[in-house]
Amino acid sequence: MTAEPAETLRDIGETAVLQRIFPRLPQADAALVGPGDDAAVIAAPDSRIVITTDTMVHGPDFRTAWSTPYDLGWKAAATNLADVAAMGATPTALVVALTIPADTPVADLEAFADGMREACAALARGCGVVGGDLGVSPTFTIAVTAIGDLVGGDPVLRSGARPGDVVAVAGQLGLAAKGLALLFARGVDREGVPDARRARNLRSRFPAEVSAQLAPRPPIYAGPVAALSGATAMLDVSDGLLLDARRIAQASGVTIDLATEGTGVAEVLHGGEDHALLACFPGTADVPPPFRVIGRVLPVAPGSDPGVTVDGAAADERGGWDPYAEWAGGAG
Amino acid sequence: MTAEPAETLRDIGETAVLQRIFPRLPQADAALVGPGDDAAVIAAPDSRIVITTDTMVHGPDFRTAWSTPYDLGWKAAATNLADVAAMGATPTALVVALTIPADTPVADLEAFADGMREACAALARGCGVVGGDLGVSPTFTIAVTAIGDLVGGDPVLRSGARPGDVVAVAGQLGLAAKGLALLFARGVDREGVPDARRARNLRSRFPAEVSAQLAPRPPIYAGPVAALSGATAMLDVSDGLLLDARRIAQASGVTIDLATEGTGVAEVLHGGEDHALLACFPGTADVPPPFRVIGRVLPVAPGSDPGVTVDGAAADERGGWDPYAEWAGGAG
Q1: Pairing mode, if any, of strands B40-43 and A48-57?
Q2: Residue B173 φ then ψ, to 5°
Q3: B135 CB near a chain A CB, below 8 Å?
Q4: DSSP SS3 for A240
Q5: ∠ CA(B22), CA(B25), CA(B31), 5° rounding?
Q6: Cβ count within 10 A of residue B196
Q7: Which H helix or E strand runs over B119?
Q8: Which residues bind Mg(2+) 1 per the record (chains A, B) (predicted)?
Q9: Distance of alpha carbon A218 from alpha carbon A75, whole angstroms
């Protein structure tokens, strides 16, 4: 008995693939006209919309030996939802441009849609996919654009932090980087090429770390909560706490002083992709759960530039988070 | 004297590249918060937005020997603007996800931005780029999402054509396909590989045809004009007149009868990428310029299915428009 070859995009064509995928995609409550016309129409009750786009590319951003198609759909949704949430907005709709090799199995695309659907259901109920584009490419590329509604509030920018504010974070820090370090170290074969079996075994043994990397669960609901609670500045921690805190400091013209005692932040200054929300609140405000205080906003000291200190001392200048860039392992 | 090597994305990094590109991108009148935060905020005065996404991939969708970076920026904007216009909406904002090889010259990205800016200025003044993403990929891929405002009108869908309507088109038909046929035939070297010098020469000799293919000028303003004039159905003709007319016929449950006499449509039934607007108007309405009547909407004949006839006779079943798919020439 031989296995049936998997049915691919090339076998059945774009139209048939879309018919298979559409029913699995999440519905958007805000959709007035859904997929199938030249464009979708969605409700924007606030009369302003928040919009962001983020791309994941096979190779630079993910390995198919490590990420299942379901993971990719989940992560593509979650990371874009987090950018909307970081403005204090409620995500309402996604559009998805997928460009994939023609020999991609249709079952992978169905699993991708399942991942998007379940991420929306778990993280941003009511948000759904209202449109997209499916094309052929040698390089599997996922470009998602997300839209959100501000529900009457002001957008929370990076530039609003003021001395006297407290600094707080919602969501996990550090787990995604630990997961990726595990995958780099032990999710590869003897030649250093990403290996699906080893990755699955790692995920069973370290589910929190590996899942935080491959299918993150950022606290999307906390974004609008922060806005309602008077957050003065906020962003999505995607490149590491130190680097992203510096972005708020520089945009706001302040010093952000992170406190290590009792916060655990000393262990998680670097290492990205957590998609936690980092926010500043007026010192007089109650910081709403799930935010927890990890520092405070200070004036810039005379002779200094806006930036980040840790327990009052200048933080090192290591920035950035591009773990694949310098990795010599195989393509996977 | 040796030429300086071109400065690339790899040389100067994403942040510096973005600083070079941002000033060249078109500003959006509707931008309340522009690029630089987790997301942009744009005005949606109608309280509904139109949204569409479309991708161009090196190889399946364009050849860099034929399209300049400026052309690519222009076309990526124009095709997405056309999808917004085809809903009867006025384009307000674009977001652009570019994933490119690390050795792409920065000057190419600047020219790409110039093309987007000038396309918006020429075709949809006031629409601009409010955000984006720049990443590294082995395959040059351009994913654009466009947003539009309905300005109080109803969206014009594909499904609203009714017997008694007239069928009209705004914009060019057939030129883009002629341009591509010229490029396939004479824009290649002896081995069939796309050749930049030959393409430039062709463009000087056949500027209308080649430019219609590489940098189309769809009549974006005609979309809202059609909506205000009571258009019952509309779409962007991207896959050829016959196939796209059939889409309206099937969505609306009607027959669309195209007339060849005096319309020139017999020559342009196939061949896509014109991004003309095909619309239906009530037979009693004045058809607004620049639309010109090319047919009429009829009931479906007993025993027939919704579809397209030409001068009352069933049109052939040839559909689709994927000129690169079966082409054996080199990658260029």
Answers
A1: antiparallel
A2: -125, 135
A3: yes
A4: coil
A5: 90
A6: 16
A7: helix B106-123
A8: 53-54, 133
A9: 10
Taking an 8 Å cut-off on Cβ atoms, the answer to whether B33 and A131 are in contact is no
8 Å CB contact of A51 and B130 = yes
Which residues face A147 on adjacent strands? A51, A93
Q: Using the Cα atoms of residue B116, residue B119, residue B122 and residue B127 in order, give the sign of their dihedral.
A: negative
Neighboring chain B residues of A59 at a CB cutoff of 8 Å: 137-138
Neighbours of A302 (CB within 10 A): 5
- A232 interaction partners in chain B (CB closer than 8 Å): none
| CB within 8 Å of B32: residues ≥ 6 apart | A48, A155, B41, B42, B43
Does B39 contact A83 at a Cβ distance shorter than 8 Å? yes
DSSP of B188-218: B-TTS-B-HHHHHHHHHHSHHHHHHHHS---
End-to-end CA distance of chain B: 29
- By three-state DSSP, how is residue A51 classified? strand
Positive or negative torsion for Cα A203, A204, A209, A212: positive
Element spanning A245, H or E: helix A241-252
Domains (ranges, CATH) in chain B?
9-149 (3.30.1330.10), 166-171+218-314 (3.90.650.10), 177-214 (no CATH)
Residue A316: CB atoms within 10 A of its CB come to 11
Residue B39 to residue A235, Cβ atoms within 8 A: no
Q: Record the tokens describing residue B232, joined without a space.
A: 């019952």
Report the candidate in A332, A135, A248, A22 with the shortest Cα–Cα distance to residue B142.
Answer: A135
Tokens of B30: 């509707």
> How many other CB atoms sit within 10 Å of the CB of residue A314?
12
Written as six digits, the tokens of B90 are 């006025």
DSSP state of A8: B
> CB count, 10 Å around CB of B270?
17
Q: Tell me how far apart the alpha carbons of residues A221 and A206 are, in angstroms, rounded to a whole number.
A: 26
- Give the single-character DSSP code of A10: H
- One digit per residue, the tens of pLDDT, for chain A of length 332 reads 556 778 999 999 888 999 999 999 999 999 999 998 999 999 999 999 999 999 999 999 999 999 999 999 999 999 999 999 999 999 999 999 999 999 999 999 999 999 999 999 999 999 999 999 999 999 999 999 999 999 999 999 999 999 999 999 999 999 999 999 999 999 999 999 999 999 999 999 999 999 999 999 999 999 999 999 999 999 999 989 999 999 999 999 999 999 999 888 888 888 778 899 999 999 987 899 999 999 999 999 999 999 999 999 987 655 444 555 545 555 56
Cβ atoms of B231 and B156 within 8 Å: the answer is: yes
